[in-house]
Amino acid sequence: MRLDVFTLFPEWFEWFQTQRHVRNVVAAGSELRFIDYRETTPLGAGQVDDSPYGGGAGMVMRVDVVDAALEAAYGAERGARRTVLLTPSGRMFDEELAIDLASEPELTLLCGRYEGIDERVREHLVTDAVSIGRYVLAGGELAAMVVADAVLRKLPGALGHAESALEESFSDALEGHPEYPHYTRPATYRGWGVPDVLLSGDHERVRGWRLERSRERGETASGGS
Ligand SMILES: C[S@@+](CC[C@H](N)C(=O)[O-])C[C@H]1O[C@@H](n2cnc3c(N)ncnc32)[C@H](O)[C@@H]1O
Question: How far is the CA of 190 from the centre of ligand 1 (A)?
Fold first, then answer.
């Protein structure tokens, strides 16, 4: 995958790039770029924002600035890419969307700042608007990292054990439910035990127990508690 993130703070992603699954996908051939809108802004002195039409607090990132950044990166091919605007008012990010985005050969994430980005970007320059939750972050960088993290770990070679991704929360193997609980040594700690079935060595019983717990968690989660 070729993943590009447009941001005013590319240095935020330095840590992200050191993470093992990210390094693994890069070693396997993926390309990641973190592109600063200021590098291509058509305005003077690195300006990227302006005051909102209609008045109100804060500044808005300009459509011509975002357009210029996309033009510089992709030229005539810009319309062909899956391009995601991170915004609190977008479609809620979930496992289904992570799988969908992971199937793209090329993916672009746009981070906003300030009051957000001129609406014409959403209207004309992107394919998706995505939120990572019903709360407001100071900028799109953490949202882009959440999306990139979830997407990149779906790519071949990202994880040390490929099986880890087959049977995890929301996967088909668990019928779309959250994952079952895990336990490890010691078998007893402060008097807190481990379910007997996990110590039984009976793989069929363990499988059945895990699927039951996973279904239970799914019911609890959908019940909202
Ligand atoms: C301070 S926020 C803008 C909030 C906007 N004025 C509003 O009330 O919806 C600045 C940027 O952070 C990002 N952002 C904030 N919260 C987000 C969320 N929950 N999901 C995705 N992106 C988010 C977006 O890129 C947004 O343009």
Answer: 44
| pLDDT tens, residue by residue, 42-77 | 999 999 999 999 999 999 999 999 999 999 999 988
Nearest CA to ligand 1 atom 5: 115
Our mutation pick for probing the ligand 1 site, out of 87, 92, 126, counting the most ligand atoms within 8 A of Cβ, is 87
Facing residues of 3 across strands?
32, 107
Hunting for tokens 């209207």 — which residue is that? 123
* Angle subtended by helix axes 95-102 and 141-152, to nearest 10: 70
Please give the model's pTM, rounded to 2 decimal places.
0.95
Q: List residues bridging with 163 in a β-sheet.
A: none
Instruction: Map out the domains of the chain as residue ranges.
Output: 2-152, 167-222
User: 167-222 has which fold?
Assistant: Trp Operon Repressor; Chain A (1.10.1270)
For residue range 81-134, what is the model confidence (pLDDT) as tens digits? 999 999 999 999 999 999 999 999 999 999 999 999 999 999 999 999 999 999
Q: What is the pLDDT of residues 158-171, one digit of tens each?
A: 998 777 778 899 99
